[in-house]
Design brief:
By secondary structure, the protein is of the alpha/beta class. The chain has one domain: Nucleotidyltransferase, domain 5 (2-Layer Sandwich). It is 31% helix and 17% strand. It has a five-stranded mixed beta sheet with strand order 3-2-1-4-5, sandwiched between helices. The C terminus is likely disordered.
C-alpha cells in the first residue's frame, strides 16, 4: 500500500509537518517494502490553492492514504474524490507514524480539521462559544 506523510524534512526520521497543503515535503512510502520517495512540495509558498495543488500531486501518485497533522476543506474534498483515506492529528516522527499506520492504531478522519485559507483549527468549544454568544445576544 502506498501512503503519503507530510514532513518537515527529507528523511523518515524527520518530524511530521502539521500542515498538509503547505508542508515542506511529502514522503511517499510503499508499506510492504518500506521503499520511499521524497517530494519537495512545490505548493509550500503558493499564494492560494496550496491544499488543492498538494492533493492533486498526491492523487497523481496513486496514494491510498495520507497521514498529516491538519487538512483544510478543499484538500480534503480533492483527496476524498480520489478515494484516498485521510488520517489527521499525526505528530512525532515520520517513521513512527508509518509504524502506527501499519499496526492499525490510527483513525481515519471524516472531515477537514481546519477552515479554508485561515488555517485556524475548528474546535467544538469554539462552535459552542459562538452559539452561546448568539443566544445571549437575542
Amino acid at each position: 500500500m502506498k501512503i503519503c506523510i507530510t514532513s518537515q524534512g527529507e528523511t523518515p526520521g524527520s518530524e511530521i509537518d502539521p500542515r498538509f497543503g503547505r508542508c515542506q515535503y511529502l514522503i511517499i512510502v510503499e508499506t510492504e517494502t518500506d521503499n520511499f520517495e521524497i517530494i519537495k512540495n512545490p505548493s509550500v509558498d503558493a499564494t492560494g490553492g496550496a491544499g488543492i495543488q498538494t492533493a492533486q500531486i498526491v492523487a497523481e501518485k496513486n496514494i491510498e492514504a495520507v497521514l498529516t497533522g491538519n487538512i483544510g476543506p478543499n484538500a480534503f474534498q480533492v483527496l476524498q474524490a480520489a478515494n484516498i483515506k485521510i488520517y489527521t492529528g499525526i505528530t512525532g516522527r515520520v517513521r513512527d507514524a508509518i509504524e502506527k499506520f501499519k499496526t492499525g492504531s490510527l483513525f481515519q478522519t471524516e472531515r477537514p480539521t481546519v477552515k479554508g485559507k485561515s488555517a485556524s483549527k475548528i474546535k467544538e468549544s469554539d462552535r459552542y462559544a459562538r452559539k452561546k454568544w448568539s443566544w445571549t445576544r437575542r
